[in-house]
């Protein structure tokens, strides 16, 4: 029997992978793994910082892939697996060992719920690429949920003795974040916000003021900004729902007026 020849496009498909974006994804994966190690060793603040480093690297790999025209299906799948470790497993284990361990079974169930909802969120995002409005995320992104956990831990360490009891608050927060990740609530994606295009002067002034405020209290402001983003999702969904209903009502009124005019 003669061996079937591969088509030229098949050989081109398996020619290789892009190095630079996948190296950055690997660095993000390493930061997430390091956060797991530090969580086990009791270095909760360092683990939270490692998750934030992974967040920065996760934003870089996709942008560099688009700039260098090196995006690939392999990179998308590898990035999702790295995100599951860095933003699902790492913050789940971190928050369990830091605040949820006293709850026993209920504590580790909450941590597992956070991780599995993050995995479901990633899987849904992968299959919905190109099918939903790119201006919005369908559900809270798993990097944002992990950042909320990390900044909350950093804020508690910064407040010290002034921090209120963290256990009940964190348990409630984990359940809320888990629900938001698998919900259909819309969150702004910032993908249409172009930094390299001309903007009104007040936008620059606002960016400078925001930078100064964050520089004064980075841990506290980081947590507050992430909390504002989490709250913005339900508010945005209500606004979009209100606009949709107003548009439907206006269409109904127009159709009723047209029918009335035709009948007369």
TrEMBL record:
<dbReference type="InterPro" id="IPR050324">
    <property type="entry name" value="CDP-alcohol_PTase-I"/>
</dbReference>
<dbReference type="InterPro" id="IPR043130">
    <property type="entry name" value="CDP-OH_PTrfase_TM_dom"/>
</dbReference>
<feature type="transmembrane region" description="Helical">
    <location>
        <begin position="43"/>
        <end position="60"/>
    </location>
</feature>
<feature type="transmembrane region" description="Helical">
    <location>
        <begin position="106"/>
        <end position="124"/>
    </location>
</feature>
<feature type="transmembrane region" description="Helical">
    <location>
        <begin position="81"/>
        <end position="100"/>
    </location>
</feature>
<feature type="transmembrane region" description="Helical">
    <location>
        <begin position="168"/>
        <end position="189"/>
    </location>
</feature>
<keyword id="KW-1133">Transmembrane helix</keyword>
<protein>
    <recommendedName>
        <fullName>CDP-diacylglycerol--serine O-phosphatidyltransferase</fullName>
        <ecNumber>2.7.8.8</ecNumber>
    </recommendedName>
</protein>
<dbReference type="InterPro" id="IPR048254">
    <property type="entry name" value="CDP_ALCOHOL_P_TRANSF_CS"/>
</dbReference>
<dbReference type="GO" id="GO:0012505">
    <property type="term" value="C:endomembrane system"/>
</dbReference>
<keyword id="KW-0808">Transferase</keyword>
<keyword id="KW-0472">Membrane</keyword>
<feature type="transmembrane region" description="Helical">
    <location>
        <begin position="224"/>
        <end position="242"/>
    </location>
</feature>
<keyword id="KW-0812">Transmembrane</keyword>
<keyword id="KW-1208">Phospholipid metabolism</keyword>
<comment type="similarity">
    <text>Belongs to the CDP-alcohol phosphatidyltransferase class-I family.</text>
</comment>
<feature type="transmembrane region" description="Helical">
    <location>
        <begin position="201"/>
        <end position="218"/>
    </location>
</feature>
<feature type="transmembrane region" description="Helical">
    <location>
        <begin position="16"/>
        <end position="37"/>
    </location>
</feature>
<dbReference type="GO" id="GO:0016020">
    <property type="term" value="C:membrane"/>
</dbReference>
<dbReference type="GO" id="GO:0003882">
    <property type="term" value="F:CDP-diacylglycerol-serine O-phosphatidyltransferase activity"/>
</dbReference>
<dbReference type="InterPro" id="IPR000462">
    <property type="entry name" value="CDP-OH_P_trans"/>
</dbReference>
<dbReference type="InterPro" id="IPR004533">
    <property type="entry name" value="CDP-diaglyc--ser_O-PTrfase"/>
</dbReference>
<keyword id="KW-0594">Phospholipid biosynthesis</keyword>
<dbReference type="Pfam" id="PF01066">
    <property type="entry name" value="CDP-OH_P_transf"/>
</dbReference>
<keyword id="KW-0443">Lipid metabolism</keyword>
<dbReference type="GO" id="GO:0008654">
    <property type="term" value="P:phospholipid biosynthetic process"/>
</dbReference>
<keyword id="KW-0444">Lipid biosynthesis</keyword>
<feature type="transmembrane region" description="Helical">
    <location>
        <begin position="136"/>
        <end position="156"/>
    </location>
</feature>
